[in-house]
Amino acid sequence: MESKRCFANRFDDYAGSLPAGQHHEAVVPWVAATIERILQQVPPLEGGLAAAAGGLYGGLAGMAYMLYHAARCPLLAPARDTYLRAARRLIDACVRYEEEWGEPDADTRAAFLLGGAGVYAVAALVYQALGLPDFGRLLGRFRELSQICAPVTFLECGSDELFVGRAGYLCAALVLKQKLGMETLTPGQIRSICQAILESGKQYAVKKRKPCPLMYSYYGTEYLGAAHGLSSILQMLLSYYEYLQPADQELVWQSIDFLMDQEQNSNWPPELGETIKRESELVHWCHGAPGIAYLFAKAYLISKKPQYLDTCIRCGELTWQKGLLKKGPGICHGVAGSAYVFLLLYRLTGNSKYIYRSQRFAEFLFTEEFKAGSRALENIYSLYEGFSGTVCFLIDLLQPNQAEFPLFSIFV
């Protein structure tokens, strides 16, 4: 029976050698042409700031990040200045939107993927790359947001997840640290946000009598995946491991092992306690193994325990089987998001099999089968659902030794 969610993977698996020929000779012109096509889709910014809404997830800010990422790739060096100038034009509109039209309440101002925190972080990166002194002001705006998300229950919908909550704010700070080579937040600010995440998770677990020492919900649902769930919250706590007390570090490990025990045939249900039905199984970055793999990769890098790497490898096997997704080319629930798991595993293991697999998934994006059978995109330039994320993936395929899922690094 044909799957509703994914195309059949008809590729032969790795046989010990990568295909001959210069892979980047085909990819570089496609990347350049796709960026050109995306730039032509930008709504006019002069007619008002509404076009600048949507944050990093679905708005122009995500496209600005893609242009920044492209500008950093040596193989695209001739277009560096063009890409950075275009990125600045877009991100300036997004900053203006946040400052003039943005919601006055806390939920979007401190949000990483859906609001102000992500916009200010990417604006600072673009300004710094252009050598503009104003990037310090943008970092200041980002830093001010730490006060918003410090209270344990600053959001009614759930204060800790990646899109709008504290884990996202810490993730944005991690991006800044990695790209700028400096910590944007003070140790005190980092500790207070980590402490709020821990306190929130402990309180919820006790109140709801959960078997896991740290548990969270978002809009009343106990998600497990990377988009809104436990895995990315724990991943961020591991990313700031040295700021945690030993007793809290132990609670994090216990929670990671609890999540590992929720595995069902190399995958995880979207929410705690569900049973996966194979015919409607979610194998996405947002929900399922392709996103949860990053937590176990981080756990492996810190602890060096082989069971965490083994879990990542199982995630990769499932993604090879079921990761040619029909929802489009994007990174949230599309083919590029699946392929990033192979680039992650390549960096963890050095095994060329994973380069091969990511190249095959890239190849599939250009097939008639994919073009005819994948869902039409509402917004081709978005970072998470559209072609901006696909461009980031193809750029990373050109430089696999430094490849990583956009804005979600475990190597910092």
Automatic annotation (TrEMBL):
Q: Which residues cross the membrane?
A: 110-132
Keywords linked to the UniProt accession: Membrane, Metal-binding, Transmembrane, Transmembrane helix, Zinc
Q: Where does Zn(2+) bind?
A: 286, 332-333
Top-level lineage group: Eukaryota
One cellular component term (GO) for this entry is: plasma membrane
A GO molecular-function descriptor: metal ion binding
Per its UniProt record, what SUPFAM superfamilies does this chain match?
LanC-like
Q: Which CDD domains does this one have?
A: euk_LANCL (cd04794)
Q: Which Pfam families match?
A: LANC_like
BP-aspect Gene Ontology terms: carbohydrate metabolic process; peptide modification
Q: Which family does it belong to?
A: Belongs to the LanC-like protein family.
Q: What is this protein called?
A: LanC-like protein 3
Q: What gene is this protein a product of?
A: LANCL3
